[in-house]
Amino acid sequence: MTGLRAGAMNWGGNVAFAARRVLRPRSVEELCGMVAGADRIRALGTGHSFSRVADTTGDLVSLADLPPRVEIGTDTVTVSAGTRFGEVTGPLQAAGRALHNLGSLPHISVAGACATGTHGSGDGNPCLAAAVTAVELVTGTGELVTVRRGDPDFPGSVVALGRLGIVTALTLRTQPTYDVQQVVYEDLAPDAIEDLDGVFGAAYSVSLFTRYTGPGMGMAWVKRRVDPGVPWLPPQTWLGGTRAPEQRHPVPGERGDECTPQDGLPGPWQTRLPHFRLEFTPSKGEEIQSEFFVAREHGVAAVRAVQAIGARIAPQLLVGEIRTVAADDLWTSLAYGRDSVALHFTWVRNQPAVEEAVGHVEAALRPFEPRPHWGKVFTMPADEVRTRWDRLGDLRRLAERHDPAGVFANDFTDRYL
Ligand SMILES: Cc1cc2nc3c(=O)[nH]c(=O)nc-3n(C[C@H](O)[C@H](O)[C@H](O)COP(=O)(O)OP(=O)(O)OC[C@H]3O[C@@H](n4cnc5c(N)ncnc54)[C@H](O)[C@@H]3O)c2cc1C
């Protein structure tokens, strides 16, 4: 079905897929049969990736019709792979449980998000996949296997870019529910970024937004986890900026009411940690995204390096976001082995012009050995990408074992793994 856009899932999708068709199995048994008879096949989540990571020349499989599973245990939840975060957070909250973090949008599937290393912000918060304790997947021979934390292959089996098989269910670690207060400060002082530890250590999750057009930072979105014994009255000024008088959107000119409440009042974790509300199109809709992870110690210098080329990327840049992500042990995670600062870019939807701008960003960040987000647009050569992770060869060997005929491979995984 050449030209298929993943907008089937309410998202305008940047990628025109090369896949023949989209299969929608109704049971795991049916899925096993589809895989066993396939020459090339690949799972599709909600299609929110901007890179060609999900594409295939064979069949795409949507798991949206598999029997839904949201099984809440004492300190875990097991969900069917196609479940969107926005569908699991409510039942968890009702059961008095929570996840450690969420990405900027609740619209994405749990399996799709984990497969690319999707993350939110927070010095103490690793990527969403770091909460996974077990993965159930159909391997290339059509066999259903479960890999659990503690198994030697586990660290390679979570952020696996869909290369090891089609994940049917994931188990994630949960914690007691908590409330979060969110406030936004704008017109921050030019030197706000210099105290990286002070800025990002000030709350559970902090995002800075900037257009890189000058030395200054635009906004700080502060998500503070409520400590029941210590009430927090958000100050009116912070980092040289003032509290926004009304709801803000990250992208200038977009509607603030599409974002989660920024009124400073405590609310359940899932109503404050994402930037975007489930009932609206997240972000701008018509856009392209890129993101690069650098080791935390290079964070300030990396931001300054992008500011130095700000004028060159300004025509394509809608907004940039700076977040922190804690290190994890998942081989292909963007924060594998290093506490990280993530520099995100929301671009206009103009692929050639954006690729040129991305090239400028990559050149500016090269001294800091940036890792590109697997689900977003990057242009750096494959051999450069391969130097950024030291376990890609192990993932390749794991893929050869799970998928000897290479049915889950695509151009993207062939190139970068
Ligand atoms: C508006 C917007 C905001 C975003 N914000 C963030 C953010 O805050 N943080 C961040 O890190 N990213 C963000 N992203 C990127 C997004 O989170 C990732 O691209 C994510 O992977 C998308 O999940 P998906 O369900 O759409 O997966 P898809 O894009 O459909 O697929 C992604 C990968 O997962 C694989 N996959 C999907 N399902 C399965 C399965 N069942 N088994 C095996 N493999 C599977 C696919 O084959 C593919 O390789 C954002 C994207 C958009 C559009």
UniProtKB/TrEMBL annotation:
Residues 237-268 are annotated as: Disordered. The keyword Ribosomal protein does not apply. Residues 245-258 have a biased composition (Basic and acidic residues). PROSITE patterns: FAD_PCMH. One of its GO terms (cellular component) is membrane. InterPro entries: ALO_C, FAD-bd_PCMH, FAD-bd_PCMH-like_sf, FAD-bd_PCMH_sub1, FAD-bd_PCMH_sub2, FAD_lactone_oxidase-like, Oxid_FAD_bind_N, Vanillyl_alc_oxidase_C-sub2. One of its GO terms (molecular function) is D-arabinono-1,4-lactone oxidase activity. Residues 15-177 form the FAD-binding PCMH-type domain. Its EC number is 1.1.3.41. Keywords: Oxidoreductase. This is Probable xylitol oxidase. The lineage of its organism: Bacteria, Bacillati, Actinomycetota, Actinomycetes, Mycobacteriales.
